[in-house]
Amino acid sequence: MRAVCVIGLGLIGGSVLRAAATAGRPVWGATASEADAAEARAEGFDVVDAESALRRAAEADALVVVATPLTAVREVLRQIAEHAPDALLTDVVSVKDPVDAEVRSLLPSARYAGGHPMAGVSSSGWSAGSGELFAGAAWAVIVEENTTLEAWREAAQLALDCGAQVVPTSASAHDSAVARVSHLPHLFAAVLAAVGADGGPLSLSLAAGSFRDGTRVAGTAPELVRAMTEGNRVALLDAVDDALGRLGAARGSLASTGGLKSTVDFGHAARRAFEDLASSERASATVQLNATALERLRELGERGGRVLALSAETASVELPVT
Amino acid sequence: MRAVCVIGLGLIGGSVLRAAATAGRPVWGATASEADAAEARAEGFDVVDAESALRRAAEADALVVVATPLTAVREVLRQIAEHAPDALLTDVVSVKDPVDAEVRSLLPSARYAGGHPMAGVSSSGWSAGSGELFAGAAWAVIVEENTTLEAWREAAQLALDCGAQVVPTSASAHDSAVARVSHLPHLFAAVLAAVGADGGPLSLSLAAGSFRDGTRVAGTAPELVRAMTEGNRVALLDAVDDALGRLGAARGSLASTGGLKSTVDFGHAARRAFEDLASSERASATVQLNATALERLRELGERGGRVLALSAETASVELPVT
């Protein structure tokens, strides 16, 4: 089994290191955080400095996983360019177009396919992670024009080894989707919490389940929320404009006719569609891993398909029945 | 113990009937739903037609609880005016100013104090209810200028018997608060679900915890969401305008400077304030139930205080320490 070298051992990187080890793969890591390093070592993991980790990766032809915040990615890529310039490479950063651009610029000979596991908790750092964090979660693995089957397979196999289901997609489609289903929810949670608190202690005293759930992710560390939302600026602006349009239309309807039928009915149908996707019957498809495989996988991913297994010659995909 | 007559046996009314019975109070009810009536009778409850229920309430001087949707309240109040015009009366409808106005108009001699338990689930009907639904929940009991101590005590005692904590407040302060912490969250959930679904199957396939939590209450029956949001139109417009202002400011900041610091930091602090209110140290106060008691209780409620017990002469209140 191919070795895995994880750079950054916070919530996500630390969970990847644990899960890959549980899957039986040789693993080591590096982190700029002394606290994360000490905790990982105390649990028996092999944590060294970044230069040593990357040199070892180059020798072993290991898969290098960049698991730092977006703001630290450029510096890590520079280190990789120095010590392992043609590495097999993936990352777990929450936006993909900016990381893809940096890799093309700084690491033209790396065998790279970007990734993004859709899992997390409100807390951060090594101690918040777990080898089970990704069980059953979606994990986007990016298909761009220059992505090779070799690099994509390595990134996808890591996701499967971590217990996740692989969603093949392009970087820009990924960034647009997560603006809607991850970054906008964080912005909504912040705005909702603020409007509630503006109502004073009586409002917060009367707040119950709808407010608790709607504001939960506002409890996430602000620097993490800013890194992911600000890092996906263009796609998030589109999603915010859609939301402002819909909320403004609801406001207009409530003010003029007193009714909210359209907003409430559409939202209910959308939530149903989301629930149905998780629970509905699913069809199976098998994709031959030939020269057109990545394009075919990307199409299936954008229809809601997920890769559940890879063999030497095929990918097993499940699709929602629509 | 004073008997309780519940009109409307859906999620909330059915749960009140069960909880009051568990507390040892004589209970009976009526409902326009044949299905709810049959299920309640099958569990051994005394369910009759509304006229019989109200006549019995007049004879026994029972507390009458209006537990229908807002749209049915006027018709029920007309029946009460006919069969029990000077009843002890409360209600569990989600807006309070409109119900208060109807009661003043149709039932001038009723001994009325409005109420609103802040508990619920996404499903509806008798079968969705439970005698434990209100355990530890906030239950607003309304203090208006013409509210008598007798009527307020009866409504508050019912809430305490159901396991809830009583939040004394005025009708308009209640309606403003729930617009922010209950009705706006429902509108946000609907808009968020719609923006997510607009992203197609890929978006919903990548959606995880933040989207699931942020859209949960969009799964509530649309007619219930419309009844409560449209019924609180004026206060909800204020809350929506605050939300539009904050979301628009975030949009402007993201577009111009690329930053969301102010939005994210303020939302995080607001969520913290909400969590702290639930977990922080609390001070105790005792209010003598004299002529100025209701005004004093209302003040404490608007500072986040909750009544945890009533005796013949005092109310025991807990307040957040700030």
TrEMBL record, chains A, B:
GO terms for molecular function: NAD+ binding; prephenate dehydrogenase (NAD+) activity; prephenate dehydrogenase (NADP+) activity. It comes from the Bacteria. GO terms for biological process: tyrosine biosynthetic process. Keywords: Oxidoreductase. Residues 2-285 form the Prephenate/arogenate dehydrogenase domain. The keyword Zinc does not apply. PROSITE patterns: PDH_ADH. The keyword Endoplasmic reticulum does not apply. Its EC number is 1.3.1.12. Pfam families: PDH_C, PDH_N. InterPro entries: 6-PGluconate_DH-like_C_sf (IPR008927), NAD(P)-bd_dom_sf (IPR036291), PDH_C (IPR046825), PDH_N (IPR046826), Preph/Arog_dehydrog (IPR050812), Prephen_DH (IPR003099). It is an enzyme of class 1 (oxidoreductase). Belongs to the prephenate/arogenate dehydrogenase family. This is Prephenate dehydrogenase. It comes from Saccharopolyspora phatthalungensis.
